[in-house]
Amino acid sequence: MIMIMNRTLLKLAALFALCTCMIAARRLEPSFNDIDHTEFAQQLQHAIRISRQDAPSAANTTNTPQATSCSSPSSQWLKSVIADVSEEDLTTFFDNHLHVLPFVYKLHVAPRHYDQEYFGLDGEYTQEITSVHNQAQAFWSYSGVNDEIYLLSAHGSDLADRHNKLVPTLELLFHKNYDSDYTVYDHAADIQDLITRLPGGYNFPLLTFNAFATDEMDDEYEASSIIIGDGYFQFQKALGMDSEGPEYAHTHEFSHHLQFLLGVSDTKSGIAQVAKKSELLADAFSAYFLAHDQGGNFASDEISNVHSVAFSVGDCAMSNEGHHGTPIQRRCATVWGAGLAENEDTDKIDIFEFQKRFDTWFERVDDLIDSCQHLDSAATSRSHGILSLQLMSFLVVGGISMLL
Fold first, then answer.
1. 300, pLDDT greater than 60
2. Sign of torsion, CA 159 164 169 171?
3. Is the C or the N end of the chain the one with fewer CB within 10 Å?
């Protein structure tokens, strides 16, 4: 049984809170809270909190064009992944933040060998990710975005190396909580024992179901990065969305680096901690780049797949402060961004102008329906359609009467 449980984590949280000033200044000391407030970590925790039940509907139940329920593909997938995990093991998994460890290792412990990074369990997405990264760097260079954004990957398999990887990571996070009765090696052994009981072992998707952007990781490297875990690619593959899914994942996170320039992303400890508006803006930036003929230059069917991928990562936790947009809102943000690329006369739009237009669109984001129209616009269109139909019926009937 792993001994470092909730009370210890509360003590750690208090310790990290006391060190907030140092963290903000140096962006060095890792914290559970930093990574736990990223998009997929929050979605993961929400899926667990609702105890394998559908998220409660927050949709309008009146007779409107809006859907009567909110269903999140990612939440459904998460619940399927944990279906065969015992409640005890699941509790221990999250009490000890195993979903954070591979990311803390890569960001704060691992030596920097950027040319050795691979994406996907077997590196199957490496070429796609590196290619779109180079395209994005070139496309957005006019904006002043950092020209040295490094690509990092998170692998559950790193936790299998007890001495060189897992133990240093645990010491970094828990060093004040070990003693002669329970050492870091005892903790590492317990964690590895738990992982062997999980479906897929070190490839269990929840160990690495996350992707986020970092501004600067530490004083030595001064590096900005995009980090994507294997679990995210496993999720996309499970939903049959791994054709355009990797490009969406990367360009969405790259868009957070544009937001660092705009000043709209909070970056505690260098890790982007963003909520609904920033996530939807990142979706819009992503689709704009992918649809632009000087960017990804995606065909219409490929952009349609991007819309579907964005839909799949939406969540239904509307009352949660970490809510990042419903599936419909996520999809509609990519529809709006891609439409801007297709309709814009200029070569590339200034990112501040882009944000200004997005802000106008976002003002009514809660009124969006499946068609990405607003409720009143859809109602008006429907009324016009009914009126036109009535007029046609009148004219046809009148014409027949005259003929008779």
1. yes
2. positive
3. C
- What's the chain's Rg over C-alpha atoms? 24
Would the CA dihedral through 365, 370, 372, 374 be positive or negative? negative
pLDDT digits (tens, 9 = 90+) for 180-206: 999 999 999 999 999 999 999 999 999
Residues 333-353 have pLDDT tens digits of 999 999 999 887 668 999 999
Bridge pairing between strands 149-154 and 271-273: unpaired
> Would you state the torsion angle of the CA atoms of residues 144, 147, 149, 151, taken in this order, to the nearest 10 degrees?
130
By the 8 A CB rule, do 36 and 25 touch?
no
**How many Cα atoms occupy the beta-carbon half-sphere of 87 within 13 Å?**
3
Q: Are strands 149-154 and 224-229 parallel, antiparallel or unpaired?
A: parallel
Beta pairing class for 211-214 and 266-268: unpaired
Identity (one letter) of the amino acid at 313?
A: V
What are 353's two structure tokens?
Answer: 């102008």
DSSP letters, 63-118, are: SSSS-S----HHHHHHHHHTTTS-HHHHHHHHHTTTTTHHHHIIIIIS---GGG--
With tokens 């882009």, the residue in question is 354
**Burial bucket for residue 390 (CB in 10 Å: 0-12, 13-18, 19+):** exposed
